[in-house]
């Protein structure tokens, strides 16, 4: 599975964070042609400029999604890391938070995935689409309604898209659902000790690392991969 992504165009949408950076570094080792998008943290994104093109894109915007896809005219792979934890501190902001969660965690990513798939179909390209969910979409966590429900919807929509894309060209759609990982949105929770009980009780052997997730993404991007329409929980067994 080494070097099979050489010179293939891969977009890492929302890939400027810890999980995206680890994935970019792994794919760059094979000299994949990367386009990495960010929304707000330009300085962090620019640190990845040596690995590929860095562009700003708001996946809620149709014009931004189009511009992002145009950065990779021979697109082989799309990975969408975008997410918003969506936990309102103020109960009066609940409806606004819920709407934003749906836009950021579901609508933007699935629309980009479908638009990318249409381009692959039009060019006859066999490729891979990887969407990002969370362990919270596969188990019940109090207070996670806005975030988890939107990600659960994304998982279901991804599987529908995978079914729709069966045939020629073969475009695979899969989902990675990270658990308690010391990168990305869970990093601050780990530092606060929120998940220490999972280690103490033996539920998980250790906290996840960004590299664990990057390897899962790379697995789904493999051109000869035989898997589509699946959700892979990279969570050390937390959702068990």
What does this structure look like?
By secondary structure, this protein is an alpha/beta fold. The chain has a single domain (9-234), classed as Rossmann fold, CATH 3.40.50.720. It has eight helices and seven strands; from the N terminus they run βαβαβαβαβαβαααβ. It has helices spanning 18-28, 42-46, 62-70, 94-123, 145-164, 187-192, 196-200, 210-221; strands at 9-13, 33-38, 52-56, 75-80, 127-132, 171-178, 231-234. A seven-stranded parallel beta sheet has the order 3-2-1-4-5-6-7, sandwiched between helices. Helix 2 (42-46) links the parallel strand 2 and strand 3. Helix 1 (18-28) crosses helix 8 and helix 4 runs parallel beside helix 5 (145-164). The model has no long low-confidence stretch (mean pLDDT 95).
